[in-house]
Amino acid sequence: MDRISGLPKAILHDILGRLPDKDAAKASVLSKSWRETWFSFPILSVCCTNFLSLHALSLSPNDPLWLRKLDILVEYVSKRLIRLRDQGLSVKEFKLSLVSPKRDYTRVYPHVDQWIQMASESGVEVLELRLIGCFAKLYNLPLCIAEGKSLTKLGESELTQHS
Questions:
Q1: Is 4's pLDDT higher than 60?
Q2: What is the C-alpha radius of gyration for the chain, rounded to an integer number of angstroms?
Q3: Distance between CA atoms of residues 32 and 7, nearest Å
Q4: Tally of structural domains, the chain
Q5: Is residue 98 part of a domain?
Q6: Alpha-carbon distance 33 to 12, whole Å?
């Protein structure tokens, strides 16, 4: 084991927090220790373009490949939030970007509600949503946002390259 991997999780989280999101995600492949650190990292930034390639974005909304890519995105975010909850860890920041003007993400919105609920229950401090698609204006924030006592920032994020 290298010396850095043996540092306390709080220090490893601080290191990840100083990296661009994409590089922080890449650190999870360095070793088992870094993978565990990544899965307990309290900042979750997700951008659809990291899951949906340009090819996938050009597919029909009912195309099986498009639906499979959406399912991968949903599964990833759900697993990360469940893992944090199960470990009793708080979610410091949750940033979600679904930004394809010609896409309908309404299929994902029930999951977004669940994710916001889980993040809220985990003491989320920063919640940033960027929902741009055909029906983004139809999305209503769940009531748990108003009840969130730990929330210090709610806004639209400026995500471009996140994991």
A1: yes
A2: 16
A3: 13
A4: 2
A5: yes
A6: 10
Tell me whether residue 102 is in a domain: yes
Per residue in 87-126, pLDDT (tens digit) is 888 888 999 888 766 666 777 888 988 999 999 888 899 9
Residues 143 and 75 in one domain: yes
Could you tell me where the DSSP H helices lie in 28-156? 32-39, 54-57, 64-86, 109-121, 144-147
* Domain that residue 22 falls in: 1-41
94 contacts: CB under 8 Å, gap ≥ 6? 44, 115, 116, 119, 124, 126, 127, 128
The verdict on pTM exceeding 0.85 is no
Q: How far is CA 135 from CA 19, 101, 139, in A?
A: 33, 9, 7
pLDDT reported for residue 69: 83
pLDDT in tens, 87-96: 888 888 999 8
58 and 74 co-located in one domain: yes
Q: Tell me: do 32 and 62 sit in the same domain.
A: no
